[in-house]
Design brief:
It contains ten helices and 13 strands. It is α+β, with helices and mostly antiparallel strands. The strands form four sheets. Strands 1-2-6-7-5-4-3 form a seven-stranded mixed β-sheet. One of its GO terms (cellular component) is plasma membrane.
């Protein structure tokens, strides 16, 4: 989904109906980049942009994503997400759209427009050219991996603390972390997100409630209780940090093992003096030794806290950001509250 800064998305050739202005709450790390207008399109325009849905570039459980050529002076590319047709999924579409209209952060994918003319809902996003973290993790340098960990924590902090109505994403995993041309992260897919009171605690409606999330990333506390909270996202962030350091997948279906189960015993005592060999043994061998041992220790220590069984022990996203700023001093920050450059 395109990576250029869009202060106002305008189409020269289309006659779209209403214009929607999302929430413009601001703060130091709020990520608001001027006024943003999200366009409401007609279905005919969606078909025109995608050339009749001719190029599929992504597929989810209940949606497909198509490449789009957006009208305008620069002919920028976009990505159109089409939700499947059903009463339940139509409600999911409306809920996701309501959340996306409130978001504006440099590490969250930008919503440019939408269409709700038919039962099949459509959302138009910026096009992010480098795929997702799941596909590219093993190709990334150590510096880029640490920058992505920091950026993802920034996106989560924005959702948890800086939105007018606090938001829990609910499905943070590498395939939902898109990478732009400089390998900066863009969190996407808010179909499982909860907003407002439900983002703090939401009890299960019944004992047969269907749990959302992905194997290896879903908080065991949520699976046991059905209670959704911000600490669910923190747990998922901890798993991704383990992946960034170790290069291992969160879940191996062939072996039926979780990364958290494999690595958990190794995370004990890594902060103690003399644990350098223990830390080095956990780092992705594909890096061929090109990493900073102390930075690896910091990320593993953060991951251990994020994965703690007790929700009260797990840090907030804001606390994680402060730890990284304090202890990973080599990160290329252009200012205390700015985003690091995550070039590969």
């Amino acid at each position: 989904m395109g990576s250029s800064c869009l202060r106002c998305f305008k189409l020269e050739c289309c006659k779209s109906t209403s214009t929607v202005r999302p929430d413009q709450s601001k703060g130091k790390d709020g990520g608001v980049e001027g006024e943003v207008f999200v366009r409401k399109f007609r279905w005919e325009e969606i078909e025109f942009f995608t050339k009749g849905f001719s190029r599929l570039i992504g597929r989810g459980g209940f949606s497909n994503v198509y490449l789009a050529k957006l009208s305008g002076s620069d002919q920028r590319q976009g990505a159109v997400k089409i939700h499947a047709r059903s009463d339940r999924l139509n409600q999911v579409f409306k809920q996701e759209l309501d959340i996306l209209l409130r978001l504006r952060h440099h590490n969250i994918v930008k919503l440019l427009g939408y269409c709700d003319d038919l039962d099949e809902g459509a959302m138009v996003f910026e096009y992010v050219p480098n795929g997702n973290l799941q596909e590219k993790l093993h190709l990334l340098s150590w510096k880029t991996r640490t920058a992505i960990a920091f950026q993802l924590a920034q996106a989560i902090e924005y959702l948890h603390e800086k939105c007018t109505l606090q938001i829990v994403h609910g499905d943070i995993k590498p395939s939902n972390v898109l990478l732009d041309e400089y390998f900066n992260c863009k969190l996407c897919d808010f179909g499982s997100a909860k907003m407002g009171f439900s983002s703090t605690v939401k009890p299960p409606l019944c004992s047969k409630q269907v749990m959302v999330g992905s194997p290896g990333y879903t908080d065991p506390h949520y699976l046991r209780t059905g209670l959704a909270s911000k600490k669910n996202d923190v747990y998922s962030l901890g798993v991704i940090m383990l992946e960034l350091v170790t290069g291992m997948k969160a879940f191996c279906p062939e072996r039926g093992q979780l990364l958290t189960s494999i690595v958990a015993p190794c995370l004990r005592d890594i902060d103690q003096h003399g644990a350098e060999e223990k830390v080095a043994a956990l780092v992705d061998p594909r890096l061929c030794g090109e990493f900073d041992l102390e930075e690896a220790r910091v990320l593993l220590s953060i991951a251990a806290l994020c994965l703690h069984q007790s929700l009260t022990v797990r840090p907030s996203a804001a606390q994680i950001i402060e730890i990284i700023k304090e202890k990973i001093t080599s990160m290329d920050l252009q200012g205390k509250d700015s985003l690091p450059l995550a070039t590969k």
